Amino acid sequence: MSTVEVAPVAGGGAVAAGAARRGSVRPWLRLLRSELGLVFRRWRNRALLAVVVAIPVLLGIALRVAVPQGGGGGGGGLGAAFLTQVAGNGVFLAFLALTIMLTLVLPLVVAVVSGESLAGEANTGTLRYLLAVPAGRARLLSVKYTAVVIFALTACLLVAASALIVGAILFPIGPVTLLSGNTVPLAEGLLKLLFVVLYVAAAMAMLGAIGLAISSLTEHPIGAIAAIMILAVASEVCDNIPQFAAIGPYLPTHWWLSFDSLLRTPIDTTVLAHGLLSFGVYIVIFALVAWARFTTADITS
Is residue 103 helix, strand or coil? Predict the structure, then answer.
C-alpha cells in the first residue's frame, strides 16, 4: 500500500517541477519577445543596421574601382592581408568588412543598444513601471542583456551577408586561399566565415556586458554610450602602445582580431581559447557588476 502511495507522490513532484520550469521560462520568453520588439523597432537601431549593411557595399564598390588600378596591395596588418585577397575571391570582402568595422562601427552599434538598455528606460521614466510587473530585477536584467547579444549577432551576420553578396557580384567566387597559403573548398571557407562571425559576436557580447553595467550606473543614455565608446577606443589605443605591452593581453579589445587564427592551417586554438576566455571573464565580471547595482539600486524613475 505504501509503495502505491509513494509512486504518485514522486510522479507528482516531477510534474510539479516541470510545471514550475515552464512557468518561469514562458514569462521570460514573453518578456524577451517584447524587449526584442522594442529594440528592433527603434528607428535609431534600424538606422544602425542599415549602416552596417551599407558599409560593405561601399567598400566593395571602392575596391572594385581600385583593383584595375593596382589597388589591394601594400601595407601591413590583418586588414592589408585581407585586402590583397579580395580581388581574387569575393569571400574575403566579408573578412575585410568585419575587420574594418570591428574597430569602430560594430562597437558603436553595441554601445548604443547596451548604453540605453537601462539608462534609456530610467531617462524616460518607464523603468519603474517595468519593475512593477512581477518579473523580478534579475530576470529583467537577463532579458536586457540577451536582447543586446541578439542585436549584436544580427549586426555581425548582416555585415557578413552584405559583404558576401557584394563580393559575389563584383569579384570571383571560388575555393578560398587562407592566410597561411592553403586552399580550401568554398563550402569550408563559408563555414570558417560563420565561425569568424560568431567569434566577433562573442567579442561584441563582451562589450555589451560592459555597456549594460555602465548603463545601470546612470540615467543618461548619451553619457552611457559615450563612456562605452571612450573605454573601447582607449583600450584599442593602449593596446597599440609598446609601453603598455605588459597589460595588453588583459585589455578588453586585445583579442578582438584574433579570429585570423581561423584562417590559417593549422588553426591556433590556443589564441582562440585565450580570446574566448577573456570575453567570458569580462562578461561574468560586468554582468555581476550590473546585477549588484541593478538589484540593490533604489529605482525612482
Answer: coil
Up-side HSE of residue 99: CA atoms within 13 Å toward CB? 20
Q: Note the pLDDT of residue 136.
A: 74
Q: pLDDT, tens digit, for every residue of 103-113?
A: 999 999 999 99
Please compute the mean of the pLDDT values over residues 123-145 and round it to a whole number. Answer: 71
DSSP lists the bridge partners of residue 184 as 176
Stated as kind and residue range, the H or E segment containing 183 is: strand 183-184
Nearest 5°: phi and psi at 42? -65, 130
Q: pLDDT, tens digit, for every residue of 200-236?
A: 999 999 999 999 999 988 888 999 999 999 999 999 9
Give Cα separations from 148 to 35, 154, 168, 227 (angstroms).
Answer: 10, 10, 30, 17
What is each CA distance from 144 to 110, 196, 211, 270, in whole angstroms?
13, 25, 11, 32
Question: 200 and 259 in contact (C-beta within 8 Å)?
Answer: yes
> What mean pLDDT do residues 147-171 have?
95
Burial of 44 (0-12, 13-18, 19+ CB in 10 A): exposed
The model's pTM is 0.86
